[in-house]
Write a structure and sequence with these properties.
single chain, TIM Barrel, 275 residues, alpha/beta
Length: 275
């Protein structure tokens, strides 16, 4: 099995040092850190005053920072304003930055912004991955692919099954993406149709752990590149409200992902399917 990443949003309103500790205790190899304000959960932000504590915990635990979150292609001024967060993330060992086109409807400008963002991130030794998000201006895999091609930059795609399904996509859409472009996967699960009582907040508060829902996760894992980094992004306020500590949530998350891969390997042995 690969070394999995515990992505920040999974533990909701948890301090980044606690995230690092929980990842280490559960057996994760890497994490994502939320370095660019505003964070969806305020405590999760690795702000300048928390950098030293995070650096110490990363060194002590051996946990690595896989990706830095999250940057929107809002404007050229915004890109310049991202420099302190990127620099902080680079000092902490961040490898890639997660970028969204959530708010910019101008395709030509968005492509220019994406290219410029990749250039700025590259100055700090950081790669860039574009995540299509349901409700954003770039919401589908095809739109993400086209925006990357138009930018002319070396940018990957982050594939999140939640956004794939909620934007009306399917596993078949993955086949349209050039080999090597999908570089990061954020696993989660959910019902194929969200109930009305959680639809507005499902993405950031009410996802299911792999195996608890109806998303075609095994088919997705069969379709993605074998070298894609695999993380888990499953914010679950129901677990928080049940009193589960960050480390317990992290352990449950890792067990869920490992179970998914075990099923994948069993199917490959039994039916001769490719892993």
């Amino acid at each position: 099995m690969p070394r999995f990443s515990l992505d920040s949003l999974t533990l909701t309103d948890t301090e980044p040092t606690e995230l690092i500790e929980a990842a280490a205790q559960a057996g994760f190899g890497t994490i994502s850190l939320w370095v660019q304000p505003p964070a969806l959960y305020a405590s999760a932000a690795c702000t300048a005053d928390k950098e030293a504590g995070c650096a110490e915990r990363l060194q002590a635990t051996g946990i690595a920072v896989e990706t830095l979150e999250v940057f929107d292609l809002h404007s050229f001024d915004a890109l310049e304003a991202y420099r302190p967060a990127l620099e902080r993330g680079a000092r902490l060992g961040g490898k890639t930055a997660l970028v969204l086109n959530y708010s910019n409807p101008d395709r030509r400008q968005s492509a220019e912004l994406l290219g410029k963002f990749a250039e700025i991130a590259g100055e700090y030794g950081i790669g860039a991955n574009l995540e299509p998000v349901a409700g954003g201006k770039t919401s589908s895999l095809r739109q993400a692919r086209d925006l990357i091609v138009a930018s002319g930059a070396d940018v990957g795609i982050t594939l999140d099954p939640f956004h794939l399904i909620r934007a009306g996509g399917s596993i078949a859409d993955i086949a349209e993406i050039p080999a090597g472009m999908i570089r990061y996967v954020q696993l989660c699960d959910g019902p194929l149709i969200a109930s009305s009582d959680i639809a507005a907040s499902e993405a950031i508060a009410h996802r299911l752990y792999p195996g608890e829902g109806e998303f075609p996760l095994l088919d997705m894992l069969r379709a993605i590149p074998a070298d894609a980094t695999v993380g888990i992004e499953c914010p679950s306020l129901s677990r928080v409200r049940a009193g589960k500590a960050p480390a317990e949530q992290a352990r449950e998350a890792l067990l869920a992902v490992e179970s998914l891969y075990t099923q994948l390997e069993q199917a490959a042995r039994e039916y001769g399917e490719p892993k």
